[in-house]
Amino acid sequence: MIDAVIFDIGGVLYHWHPRYLYEKLIPDRDRLEWFCTHVVTPEWHFQHDAGRPAAETTAELVAAFPEERALIEAYVPRWLETLPGPIDGMIELVHALADGGVPLYGITNFSHEFWPRFASTEPAFARFRDIIVSGEERMVKPDPAIFALAQARFPVDPSRALFIDDRDDNVAAAEAAGYRGHVFTDAARAKAALTALGLSL
């Protein structure tokens, strides 16, 4: 049985990838694929999740690919376009849990600069009691330290809290810290996992 739920954000509640922005800017499919695997890549972006300022990472990338300056410099001002919308059924699930009185928390790998811009666009985040943002703390999942921080900040018994994330390594780290874990694939399976653990939805 559980009495609290901890969500990841990108890949669980919202779709995210740099490609969603750049497919609007690069019409040639082969060039788009090259750009998203060699220039503005998820791995490059993950530096922001660890707390690096976007101004620094952008300057470094422009120095490495000067011919791509215009596209690289579009990333920060148009960053919200990398999040095209919520994953089907998940915002509704957040509201259903909150309406049922279930305490909700978040642990997300997210830039401290980008998070406020994004969080203000989604009212469902107001239903969360606390959200740990990796860029603010300068620690990222699956580092055990971020789960130790969650244990210190979230007033829940880890053994009675379900952590939902789309990455196996993050879920494994949460389970090693004593949380229940669910590897996210879709809303139906997440809901089934929650009801199997005793929550009414």
Automatic annotation (TrEMBL):
Signal peptide: none annotated. Its EC number is 3.8.1.2. NCBIfam families: HAD-SF-IA-v3 (TIGR01509). This is 2-haloacid dehalogenase. Keywords: Hydrolase. The lineage of its organism: Bacteria, Pseudomonadati, Pseudomonadota, Alphaproteobacteria, Sphingomonadales. It is an enzyme of class 3 (hydrolase). The keyword Coiled coil does not apply. Coiled coil: none annotated. One of its GO terms (molecular function) is (S)-2-haloacid dehalogenase activity. The keyword Hydrolase applies.
